[in-house]
Amino acid sequence: MSRFRTRFGNIRPFDEFLDSTDFDVKTYTSQSIHQAVIAEQLAKLAQGISQLDKELHLQMMQTRIGALQGAVDRMKAKIVEPYNKIVARTAQLARLQREN
Predict the structure, then answer these.
(1) What's the pTM value of the predicted model, to 2 decimals?
(2) Which terms under GO biological process does the entry name (predicted)?
(3) Which of 9, 12, 52, 99 could form a disulfide with 5 if both were Cys (CB 3.0 to 4.6 A apart)?
(4) Is residue 1 part of a domain?
């Protein structure tokens, strides 16, 4: 064991096994499982937060697209009416010129 300690004693993962004379397998296993469960829950929380971020971004983009569509519709209304008047007046002028 001393040769092992000399060779691997400075490696952190082995500290728990080498430095403790009262090493308890059950306690170590229980803590490891508990830490794994916590890590799993943290991973799930991180995934949930990521999903919420994506949903928030999507909702924000949909709101912006709706606002942009509204602006386009207002602009379209401002352009279509004068265009239709120009077309009608041009046709009227063409008829008047043909008659004269």
Answers:
(1) 0.50
(2) intra-Golgi vesicle-mediated transport
(3) 9
(4) no
